[in-house]
Amino acid sequence: MEFDMNKMQAMLAQAQEMQQTMDLRLAETIVEADAGGGAVKARMNGKKELLSLTIAPSAATAAANDITLLEDLIVVAVNAAARKADDTQKSNASSMLGGLGLPGF
């Protein structure tokens, strides 16, 4: 069995192209999650970059008495959005790698 450098370079180029495509898809994918019945909403892209955080006026008013509750709601919303972004990453990777016929994808 002979090592084919051209084949290896072609595979590397294909892998780089797939990575770029996946990065683009993830950047364009938007996920949202909320906490406290919508009191806090987090929007994130598939690359887990926080795009926006919205706090309902009623939650802001309530936070005047208990800032810790608002902080907790923010953490919950951001973490939930991050989990959705993780799911998106896995789904995109699986669909792209599945086309290669690799075992387990």
Quick gist of this model?
The protein has 105 residues and is α+β, with helices and mostly antiparallel strands.
- By CATH, the architecture of one domain is named 2-Layer Sandwich
Enter the CATH topology name of one domain.
Ybab, Chain: A
Name the CATH homologous superfamily of one domain.
Answer: Nucleoid-associated protein YbaB-like domain
Low-confidence stretches are none
Helix content: 55-70%
Cross-sheet strand order for the largest sheet: 1-2-3
Rg for CA atoms: 20 Å
Largest sheet: 3 strands, antiparallel
> On the 0-100 scale, what is the average pLDDT?
87
What is the approximate shape?
Answer: rod-shaped
| Count of beta strands | 3
Distance between the termini: 27 Å
Give the helix/strand class.
alpha+beta
Portion in strands: 15-25%
The topology string of helices and strands comes to HEEEHH
The CATH class of one domain: Alpha Beta
Can you tell me about this structure?
The structure is a single chain. With 105 residues, this protein is α+β, with helices and mostly antiparallel strands. The protein has a domain at 30-85: Ybab, Chain: A (2-Layer Sandwich). It has three helices and three strands, in the order αβββαα. The chain has helices at 5-28, 57-63, 67-98; strands spanning 30-35, 40-45, 50-55. A three-stranded antiparallel sheet has the order 1-2-3. The longest helix has 32 residues, at 67-98. The mean pLDDT is 87.
